[in-house]
Amino acid sequence: MIRPHFPTRFLQWGTPMRERTSGRTVGGFRNLFLQGPAVTLLLLWMLVPLGMTLWFSFQRYNLINPMISGFAGWDNYTYLLTDPALWTAMGNTLLLVGWVLAISVIGGTLLAVLFQQEFFGRGIARLLVIAPFFVMPTVGALVWKNMLMHPVNGVFAWLSNLLGLPVIDWFSSMPLTSIIIIVSWQWMPFALLILLTAIQSLDDDQVEAARMDGAGPLAIFWFITLPHLKRAISVVIMIEMIFLLTIFAEIFVTTSGGPGLASTNLAYFIYIRALLDFDVGGASAGGVIAIILANIVAIFLIRTVAKNLET
Amino acid sequence: MNPTMTKKLLLTLLAWGIALIVFFPIFWMILTGFKTEGEAVATPPSLFFEPTLAGYHTVMARADYLKFALNSIVISFGSTLLALIVAIPAAYSMAFLPTKRTQGTLLWMLSTKMLPPVGVLMPVYLLFRDMGLLDSQLGLTIVYMLMNLPIVVWMLYTFFKDIPKDILEAGRMDGAGTVQEVLYLLLPLTLPGIASTGLLSVILSWNEAFWSLNLTTSDAAPLTAFIASFSSPEGLFWAKLSAASTLAIAPILIFGWMTQKQMVRGLTFGAVK
Amino acid sequence: MYLKHVLPLAGAATLASFAAHAETITVATVNNNDMIIMQGLTDEFEKAHPDIDLEWVVLEENVLRQRLTTDIATDGGQFDVMTVGTYEVPIWAKQDWLVELDDLPESYNEDDLIKPIRDGLSQDGSLYALPFYGESSMMYYRTDLFEKAGIEMSDQPTWDQVQDWASQINDPDNDVYGICLRGKPGWGENMAFVSTLVNTFGGRWFDEDWHPEINSPEWKEAVSFYVDLMNKYGPPGATSNGFNENQALFSSGKCGMWVDATSAAGKFYDADESQVADKLGFAPAPIAKTPKGSNWLWSWTLAIPTSSDSKDAAKTFITWATSQEYIELVGEKEGWTSVPPGTRESTYENPKYQEAAPFADFVLNAIQTADPTDSTLKPSPYIGVQTVNIPEFQSVGTQVGQMIGAALSGEQSVDAALDQAQRSVERTMRQAGYYD
């Protein structure tokens, strides 16, 4: 198949396949070489800032007040962990991630089934429905805030007036819900894109056979389509979760975490510490807590998802 | 009318209805960009109006759009290229030479993405200052490369794992070394997958708005920074904001639409098959 | 050795800028109207100073503040001219972060700068920043609505009167709301207004030992009044309305009254942008128990960070942008209502300005009566009318602002919100070492 016309000995740093099962050390060496750059870079990316973050988290370090300095011990941590706002922020983070995941996975699956059907202008309709994924989160949030959800000039307010319904003041009466709506609008198309892809590889014969046996569309969806999508759904959950845990721009642009703490998530909470209070020590402690949380989530949730991916 | 036709019509109606609702915010934004400021806030909203380019003129006069756009292109494609170069060997070894630690490494890589960037802003800012990387395309390129690396590695890994082992085995029997194996066998087979991974990485880099705002000032500022100067109202600002937003998302939206077939085709090979 | 511009495209850009042979200075500024006019006059400046090129970084206020503080505190050197507020200047000057401006040219005429503004930017007698525009707060109202309701505006309105008037002119069915006030959380947004309200209700931020008084009876009375007033006669979505949003609302005729920055006045007289140009009235900021601290004092200023590489060019620029000539240039080019107000007495003596801006004397008086050193009924340890000029205030103001936002939206009761705010301010002050 491949006939290299030059001596390949130099290039053959790997061991032949047959020996690999026994020779783990050699394989390990080769792994090191191949994964080296990626792992090293990420390690550096993780460790250098992380190392500095850890160091700062034990310092009294406020950007705008250099008078405050010196070793802080566990002060930054106790200060943060006793702050009731931290727990609210964590709760909001989980709510946000959970709801958006649920909406985008369920909505994405249903839409994928719909957009898989034959209908007129399917190509263009598909382009329109995945478009929000390409839009910058900042822009998306600005459009929703100023042109749709605005209680005086927004399209929603006008629609409510038209239908004789009370105007909803989205960002003050249901801040977290509003953000969930905006974020879902951005991420559901991504789920749709992935799930639509997956659904296309569904074996038509199998569906046909089931139909012959008298299975209705619901049964086909439940017993054939859904199991087939299991792996794709896991992919969606995993990728989205990574991004949703650190949602920031949408909150920054719309509610600034308020009113009160109603829409403050962990990322925004750390932002307040770091860039509104300029308390680098406290923000670093927050960062460390976020890393620990991220790893707990990684172990806990991704493991279960990853199991799905193995098959 | 026969029942299949009726069904098809109903489906068309439903699917288009949903597509239009989902697309409406973008449509509305594009439309508002061509209104005057007065029309932009009019109640009831005006659908029919005489289009004006006034908003675009103001935006263009205030900021050098092409410079921002060029930065966005260089940074998002540059970082994607770098990420692919680093990720391909890593994904290769994880897929074909798995060890006990492979899963763990992969999960660890992904978990690095869950750290809120704001938590490490200060250290990174200080490092960049000392290395002269503030406000440079290279600096942001590196950050984006690192930011997307875990996802890129993971996606490539799923693509590589799906390559039938016997093909590689056959190649090896013929005396192909690792480099040939990767270059002549693996890459051609997984090219669609690599392409869609790259596309995803370009989109994510293009839309990232935290690092770009904090690590650049003017020379290397991409379109997300361009938007930031229009994002808060000064008097009536809806038309200007819409025009600026349309300019900022147009390249990536068109790029995304043009490549979405490719993206879907690539994805069918790997993780979501 | 610097890694900058390694990529070919960046290299090309650098070559292009070298070719011009001019010193480039990076100016960071807010996207407020007056600054955008300044950016629009770039060509005028570069024509007069061919050896200097201006590079603009225009950002919204919050993003700008965070970028500038990060940069100046880490000595990043990314900017040559920074747009900062009266709050930052004394704090940053004390840290030696700003260049002392002690050798300004004779023609600049420092003595022309309005005194309270100038004092706020000086440390031991020398200036550390030059005021670009200055403002106090006052009340705007719609003369047509007042006439229709048969209301007579008084020389010094009180908040009780304001509440009464708001109830009379409030007409939500026709999209007219009795009163618009800031509700968007932030120390420079809702707290600027709420602080003045608390001042005039007799409250203060801190007692003389730096213990916060956020849940004192005065605060509770003031904030309850504010929340009640806004819920009854305010526009929907008040918690997202800051200065700019309210300005848009008022100029499109949706507010009967508005208490906010004097710097909005010019824009309202511009008939192209405003629907209320011919029915605009103004009055001093309303008072309650005391007139002390009922109107704020703020200015946006241009300063040079010590980390700048082009201090001389930067100085040339900031003296130009805050000079009398600049004000005249804007007057000629953009119209006299668009000139940056509140910085120079000569502006207010200018007949052209007086003619175009009937509010001129009024604004000057408001600015001159604001006294940051004595703005609370009970004695306080701090300087500032709507701010407390200590580094911790950004944090404190943000926290309290969030809580008052929660009270305004009904998320929490006023008492609960203020109690929570009090606790968090106590934590911050203790953490900062004001007391144990």
From TrEMBL, chain B:
Residues 69-259 form the ABC transmembrane type-1 domain. It is found in: Cell membrane. GO terms for cellular component: plasma membrane. InterPro entries: BP-dep_ABC_trans_perm, MetI-like, MetI-like_sf. Keywords: Cell membrane, Membrane, Transmembrane, Transmembrane helix, Transport. The keyword Membrane applies. Its main location: membrane. It comes from the Bacteria. PROSITE patterns: ABC_TM1. One of its GO terms (biological process) is transmembrane transport. The chain crosses the membrane at residues 9-31, 68-94, 106-128, 140-160, 181-206, 237-258. Gene3D superfamilies: MetI-like. It is a multi-pass membrane protein. Belongs to the binding-protein-dependent transport system permease family. MalFG subfamily. This is Sorbitol ABC transporter membrane protein /mannitol ABC transporter membrane protein. It comes from Chromohalobacter canadensis.
TrEMBL record, chain C:
Pfam families: SBP_bac_1 (PF01547). Its main location: periplasm. SUPFAM superfamilies: Periplasmic binding protein-like II. It comes from the Bacteria. Residues 1-22 form the signal peptide. It is found in: Periplasm. Keywords: Signal. InterPro entries: Bact_solute-bd_prot1 (IPR050490), SBP (IPR006059). Belongs to the bacterial solute-binding protein 1 family. This is ABC transporter substrate-binding protein. It comes from Chromohalobacter beijerinckii.
